[in-house]
C-alpha cells in the first residue's frame, strides 16, 4: 500500500448512517428564532416550506441518522467516491507532508451537492410534494437538485444568481436537460425580485436574493416545498457521508489527518469532510486541526459578526445565529459563485466561535494559481470554489517542507471545474482582477442586523 494513489471502497461500504455533529457539541447552539416574535422556532413554523422528515433532521440531536435505502441506491451511481493520495503534488512541492483529497467531482453533477439533493428529493416525494423551488450560485446545487428531481419525478424551479447565470450558460443547459427550469435572479417572477430590481435595475444578484425568491414561491402553494443546498443542519448532516467514507479509506492506509481543510461559502462541503473527524475530536479523540477557507471578497468567518441574522435578503426566513456580513450584503461577481453568501452555517459558526475551526481568507488570483499547480500535478482541474481549499493545503504543505514535519493533510476537492473554463480562460488571459476591499459595503450591511 506504500505507493497507493487511489483508495477506494466497494458499494456495500456506503455508510448506512449520516453523522450528526449536534450530538457532540460541548455547548448547545443558540435557538433559531421566528422573525416576527423572536421566539424559538417550532416544527410547525417550518412546515410550509420543508417536509416533515427534513424538519426532524434539522432539529435532531441523535448522533447517527439512518440513510434510507432508496437514497443509498441512488448514491451507488457514484459513491463511495475515491480518496486520492496526492503523490505527484507532494513531489512537485518537495514536501514531506502526506496530502489526501476526497474527490467529489465524480458525481453526475460534478460536485458534492447531490449528497443532499438526493435525500431532500426523496423526503419530499415521500410526502406527496410535486414541486421544489431553490436557489443556486455557481450552479452546482441547481444542477444537483435538477438531477434529483429527474430521479424522483419532481418539478424543479431554480433561481440562479444573475452574475453566474450569465457567466455559466452550460450550467443552465445542464439543469434544463434534466427537466428543471432556471431563472436569473433577481427576477420579475417574485415580489422579492421585483423589489430589488426597482432599486437596482442592474443588480447582479446574490444567494440571499435568490433564496428570497425561491422561498416566496414555495410558500404560495401546498404542493410545493423549498430545498436549500447548504447552511442548514440537515444539509450538513447529509454531506457527512463523504467524511465517513474518508475515515474508512484512511484506515486502509493506516493514516489519520493532522489537518482537515475545506472551502466555505455556506459550509456544506467543509462540514461533509470535517464533521466526522471533528466529532471524534470532541469525544476525546485525536487533536486534528480544522481549517475553513473562504474568499477574501466575501469573508464571512474572518470579518463577519457572530450574530442573529436573516438567511435571505427579503427577510422571509427565520433568524439564525451565525457569522454574517449582513443579509443586505451584495458580494462582487468573483468566479467562485458557490462561495458568494453573506452568512455561514450556524453549526460551523458555533464551532468557530468555540475555537475548534480556524478560518482564513484568500483572494481569487492566488486561488486560481494554486488550482493550476494542483491540476498540472494531479490531472484534475478543480472548481473555483475548491481552489480555496487547494491554496490552503499547498500553504500547509510548504510549511511542512520548511519545518521538515511529515503531517497528514486532508482536503475536500468538492467538484471539478469543467463548467468553469470561462473563469480559467479569464485568469490565463490576465483578465481577472484582485478583489477590492468591500469594508464600506460590509459595514452598511451589518448595520441592518436585527436587534436580537
TrEMBL record:
Cofactors: pyridoxal 5'-phosphate
What is stated as this protein's family in its record? Belongs to the TrpB family.
**Function in brief:** The beta subunit is responsible for the synthesis of L-tryptophan from indole and L-serine.
- Record-annotated Tryptophan synthase beta chain-like PALP domain positions: 77-415
What catalytic reaction does the record list?
Answer: (1S,2R)-1-C-(indol-3-yl)glycerol 3-phosphate + L-serine = D-glyceraldehyde 3-phosphate + L-tryptophan + H2O
Oligomeric state and partners?
Tetramer of two alpha and two beta chains.
One GO CC annotation: cytoplasm
Could you tell me which Pfam families the record lists for this protein?
A: PALP
Question: What pathway does the UniProt record associate with this protein?
Answer: Amino-acid biosynthesis; L-tryptophan biosynthesis; L-tryptophan from chorismate: step 5/5
**Which PROSITE patterns does the record associate with it?**
TRP_SYNTHASE_BETA (PS00168)
Q: Which InterPro entries match?
A: Trp_synth_b-like, Trp_synth_b_CS, Trp_synth_beta/beta-like, TrpB-like_PALP, TrpB-like_PALP_sf
For this entry, the protein name equals Tryptophan synthase beta chain
Q: Keywords, A to Z?
A: Amino-acid biosynthesis, Aromatic amino acid biosynthesis, Lyase, Pyridoxal phosphate, Tryptophan biosynthesis
Q: Which residues carry this modification: N6-(pyridoxal phosphate)lysine?
A: 113
EC number in record? 4.2.1.20
Annotated GO MF terms: L-serine hydro-lyase (adding indole, L-tryptophan-forming) activity; pyridoxal phosphate binding; tryptophan synthase activity
